[in-house]
Amino acid sequence: MTVTNQTGVLLLNLGAPASPREVRSFLFRLFRDRQIFPLPGGRVLQWPFAVLVTLLRGSKVADRYRSLPGRGSPLLSITRRQALALEKRLRLEGLAWPVEVAMRYSRPFAPEALDSLAARGARSLVALPLYPQFSTATTGSSLVALRQSVSRSRNPWSLVEILSWHDRSDLHRAIANRVAAKVSEVGGRSDLAVLFLAHSLPMRFVRAGDPYVKQIEETVRGVADAMENLEGVKGVPTFLAYQSQVGPVEWVGPDVKKALREILSQGVRRIVVAPVSFVSDHLETLYEIDRLHRRTALEMGFEAFERIDSFNDAAEFIDLLARIVLEHAGQRSAHGGIP
User: Fold this and answer.
1) 214, 302, 197, 284: which is closest to 246 by C-alpha?
2) Mean pLDDT throughout 54-73?
3) 189 φ, ψ (degrees, to nearest 5)
4) For the domain 169-307, what is the CATH code?
5) Topology at the third CATH level for domain 7-165+314-328
6) Which residue from 66, 119, 203, 219 has the fewest beta carbons nearer than 10 Å?
7) Are strands 124-129 and 99-103 parallel, antiparallel or unpaired?
């Protein structure tokens, strides 16, 4: 791709209901996605399946979103702030590149985002998924939808796809710095451990060759190595668990409760939780981790269960995103590299 000032950047994310009334449409789009739930028979069974699951789970999921501050997910507003901040950061590099957001299962969808980029003068495109690790169920699905939208667009787009960025040392350092800050806040290092958390994945994906679990483990090793260079967290024991398993299928584990039992048996009483597959606050951080898993941990006998701050639109994270975009677009920083 020839990168010019006609380049645009598209941040890809899962999407989320902004309010409880959007839950059913969100779930329906999710469960009809054949990248994730490839039922036999194509749409003949896929759509009835999506309708059934949406009816069965809609009320419960809506209640969870209703309990959040603002009565809905903050994911869209956070992702829009990330896009605006990234656009401003790229402008410091002399690049007037528009940045837009495309969600997979809620608005704005890829066609809307492409229209916005085209209206702002973009003709080539850098697609940056906000999932550090690649999975067919996340990045893969988002890119399939984007390619379909590009092929149907009135504009002849040139496309650069960023598949993953899980193995970056700057990502590892950024997570490690947040771990160190939270460990200092929690205290009690002698009975403290760090629990890395990632969204789980059905085992059928792993058996089919999906690299997600391997990339999660590479991220965790990188963060643990970075912690060894930081005072206050050097030598702190670390564990990995997977969250958000639902339904009667085999999922990647261990799940959170099993990991907590193992950690507790080793004399640990204080936990600092470090999500490694999420970069923004949403239901999985604000409800599952901060409420459900924290309550479980305290009921099991832990004295502290605290999560590190999400990146959201923090300046260091926006700098990281800018570096990723520039490297994949073949651009050199105007300042000799973004620090």
Assistant:
1) 284
2) 92
3) -65, -25
4) 3.40.50.1400
5) Rossmann fold (3.40.50)
6) 119
7) unpaired
